[in-house]
Amino acid sequence: MRNVIVAANWKMHTTPADAGELARTIGARSRTPGVLRVICPPFVCLAAVRDALVGPDVVAADGNGVAVGAQNVHHEAAGAYTGEVAATMLVGLASWVIVGHSERRRDAAETDDLIGRKLRAARAAGLRAILCVGEQLDERQAGRAESVVERQLGGALAGTDPGLFSMTDAQAAAASAVGPWLTIAYEPVWAIGTGLTARGSDAAAMATAIRVTLARLGFPDAGEGVPVLYGGSVTSASIDEFLAEPAIDGALVGGASLKPDEMAGIVARAGLTAAARRAQAGIVAGPTN
Ligand code: 13P
Asked: What ranges do the domains of the chain cover?
């Protein structure tokens, strides 16, 4: 059974002075068994957010707390890279990292090859990666959405050891508690920050295409195991359309993730999905509060 995940990408919002309080409020108001919650603040707010999330008031009844993620990482381990942050520097501050966000592809000219190197650097440091993929509007209109995403996946995952996707039972159990090493976020670029969302059925079709592509790329064990999130103008009002799709395992949320009410609503709905999946798989739920 794949994890249900709600990840918050705060982008370039919050300061070290206010990020901790916002994270704590969101954490306390979104306590929901069965949902992995991740908050990705700016680099300079990681420590404040980490420290704010240790309290028992943010831990859900099943023991899930809120994980902290970075929004980017450098592809080299160390060196003369002014202003950059290596994966090993994040250890202890964050356990997740977003790679390949379309805003970095656009603003920092990140290529699929570079994103692949970041992914491998993150993996080597033990960070869990959220790899973002997604097409531009003209690419969708030209019927090329799936081929663009296939190219992005192929570029980013070239050189990845297929063995990373084959988990023993013990590894699978550990991953279900803390999340797998790789999660894919399908974020159509035209839906980011625009108020437009993809249709649930289109996002589900893309999630299926992503899994088929992973198998074709030589990762047969990845297909069913890798969580695929939807991102792009997700709110508590629009999330249900995506969670109704069995191929979609949660959301990567931008603007709405800065609003505690919205995050509480989104995670609560994800909790219903997680409970339904557990019931379908015949797994008895743990204690609730
Ligand atoms: P919005 O939810 O603000 O559209 O942003 C989505 C996103 O880019 C998350 O990474």
From this structure: 4-94+109-256
Q: Counting atoms of ligand 1 from 1, which one is nearest the CA of 98?
A: 10
The confidence score (pLDDT) of residue 16 equals 98
In short, whether 255's Cβ falls inside 6 Å of ligand 1 is yes
pTM above 0.90, yes or no: yes
Torsion sign, CA atoms 198, 204, 206, 211: positive
CB 186 within 8 A of CB 149: yes
CA distance 9 to 4: 16
Cα–Cα distance, 154 to 242 (Å, whole number): 25
DSSP for residue 94: B
Of 135, 150, 187, 245, the catalytic one is 187
Among candidate residues 260, 255, 198, the one with its CA nearest the CA of residue 229: 198
> Which class in CATH covers the domain with range 4-94+109-256?
alpha beta
Q: Which residues of 160-180 are buried (b: 16+ CB within 10 A; e: fewer)?
A: beeeebebeeeeeeebeeebb
Give 245's DSSP letter.
Answer: S
Helices marked H in the chain — which ranges? 19-29, 46-52, 87-90, 102-107, 112-124, 137-141, 145-157, 169-178, 200-216, 222-225, 239-243, 260-280
Q: Nearest 5°: phi and psi at 215?
A: -65, -45
Amino acid at 108: A
For ligand 1, whether the C-beta of 193 sits within 6 Å is yes
Q: What is the pLDDT of residues 66-113, one digit of tens each?
A: 999 999 999 999 999 999 999 999 999 999 999 999 999 999 999 999
- The Cα 102–Cα 120 span in angstroms is 19
